Every structure is written in C-alpha cells, then in structure tokens.
UniProtKB/TrEMBL annotation:
Pfam families: LRR_14. This is Leucine-rich repeat-containing protein 18. It comes from the Eukaryota. It is found in: Cytoplasm. The keyword Protein transport does not apply. Signal peptide: none annotated. InterPro entries: Leu-rich_rpt, Leu-rich_rpt_typical-subtyp, LRR_dom_sf, LRR_domain-containing, LRR_R13L4/SHOC2-like. Residues 224-256 are annotated as: Disordered. GO terms for cellular component: cytoplasm. May be involved in the regulation of spermatogenesis and sperm maturation. The lineage of its organism: Eukaryota, Metazoa, Chordata, Craniata, Vertebrata. Residues 68-192 form the Disease resistance R13L4/SHOC-2-like LRR domain. Keywords: Cytoplasm, Leucine-rich repeat, Repeat.
C-alpha cells in the first residue's frame, strides 16, 4: 500500500509535556519539546502556560495558534527549524518575551504581523534563513533589541530605524542580495553642485561678500552659456585621425 497523504506527527500528551519540563541553570522552567516530530501545535500544553521558556524548535510545525498569547510569563520562545509560513497576531501579547528565535522557517514579509512591534522587552530576534524581502520599519520600535539576525533572506536594504536601534550590538545580515557597495551614483554636474552653495539671502550679506557672490554667480552663468546643448554639440567630421602627438607625449610622460 502507498504511504498516507501528508505526515502524521507525534502526538504529545499532557503527561509527555509535563515530563519535558526542565529547570534552567538560573531556575527558570523550560518546556522542551524540540526534535519530537510535531506537525501540529499540541493544545494540551496550554495547561502549562505558566512556564518561563518554550522550545518547539526542530519540528515540522506549519502554524502557531493565536492561543500562544496565553503564555503570559514567557521570556524565551524558540521556534527555529520548522515550516512556519506565518505568525499569529497574538504573539504581540507576550510582553515579557526577551528572546525570540524564528530562523530556518518559511516566513515572508507579508506574513510578519505588525504586532511584533509590541514586544517592548525583546532583546534578541532571529529571523535568519527565511523568505523576507524587506524588514518592516516598525521593528524600530523595539528599543531594547541588542541582537538582530537577518542572514540568508532576500533583503536589499535594512531600514535605518532598525540599523540604528539605540542598544543594538550585533546585526547579522550576511548572504542577502544587497546592491554592490562599490557602485557609485552618477556624478553630479559640477555647476549644479556649486549652485547649491548659495544658501543665504542677499540681504543677509555685507556689501563686500555680496559683491564676491555676485561675481562668482556671473562667472557660472557665463560657463553655463558656453556649454552646448545636446542638439548643438559641435561636429568634428573633418577630424579623421587622433591627436597622435599628444598621445605619444602622454606615453612618454608616464614612462619618465
């Protein structure tokens, strides 16, 4: 007989969940259900919503229910290496959350809930190895963030509001298709650039300074008037050969 459609994950009972609670070195209660082949969020663990930490990493979860908000004491949530395509709005209710690992999933920018910006106590956020093509500027509201990981996505820019978070110490954006930093913008026309230096009104200048500025402006106007427009560019049809003398002199100069 052929295999049944879809994968049927391990069923987690309340007894199994209770036996999976560990005490961390700093005395916190961690519910560790990692690497158990879970495909559906086990509803029974909602009866253990007083734990401090929840580890559901390295399973096959596609969805986290909105009822995750019942874990009000949660400070640490690890969901990395699942198959999550979206997050529930209720995740924004976890006001005590300091650590959130969402790496190695299938999250897109469109399915990141706006409520993420409510996690005011969040210090570590890992969104690496997902399918994000941009980062919401609203994440800049998370002023307590110290570490942000955005590696292996499809990002072409990082919002200034995120890059300049006041307490940010580590920002990992490796292996994203950012534009080549060696590419430079088109050079600005020198005359236009000079014109932008006139930033004061004439009435604010003394007589001598005003005279100098007016003379400089007259010079610029003369230069502009001598530059041919695209339709009036000079035609050098009679110039058949290059200036070989200048070329030879230049090569000789470089050799000296």
């Amino acid at each position: 007989k052929g295999k049944a459609k879809g994968q049927k994950g391990k069923r987690i009972t309340l007894k199994t969940a209770k036996n999976s609670i560990r005490i961390t070195f700093d005395g916190r209660r961690r519910l560790d259900l990692s690497k158990m082949g879970i495909t559906t969020f086990p509803k029974c663990i909602l009866k253990l919503d007083d734990v401090d930490e929840l580890d559901l990493s390295r399973n096959m979860l596609k969805k986290i229910p909105d009822s995750i908000q019942r874990f009000e004491k949660l400070r640490w949530l690890d969901l990395h290496s699942n198959q999550l395509e979206e997050l529930p709005e209720g995740i924004g209710r976890l006001q005590n959350l300091a650590y959130l690992n969402l790496s190695n999933n299938k999250l897109t920018t469109k399915n990141l809930p706006v409520e993420l910006n409510l996690l005011k106590n969040l210090r570590t956020l890992n969104l690496g190895l997902n399918r994000l093509d941009n980062i919401p500027t609203t994440l800049g509201a998370l002023k307590e963030l110290k570490e942000v990981s955005l590696f292996d996505n499809f990002l072409t820019a990082i919002p200034t509001s995120v890059a300049k978070l006041p307490k940010l110490k580590k920002l990992n954006v490796k292996r994203n298709p950012f534009p080549d930093p060696t590419q430079q913008e088109e050079p600005v026309d020198s005359i236009k650039r000079t014109e932008t230096l006139y930033l004061v009104q004439e009435k604010d200048l003394c007589c001598s300074c005003l005279k100098i500025c007016q003379d400089e402006r007259d010079k610029l106007n003369k230069i502009k008037n001598t530059i041919p427009s695209p339709s009036q560019k000079p035609n050098f049809n009679s110039l058949i050969t290059p200036n070989s003398t200048a070329k030879e002199n230049q090569e000789q100069w470089r050799q000296d």
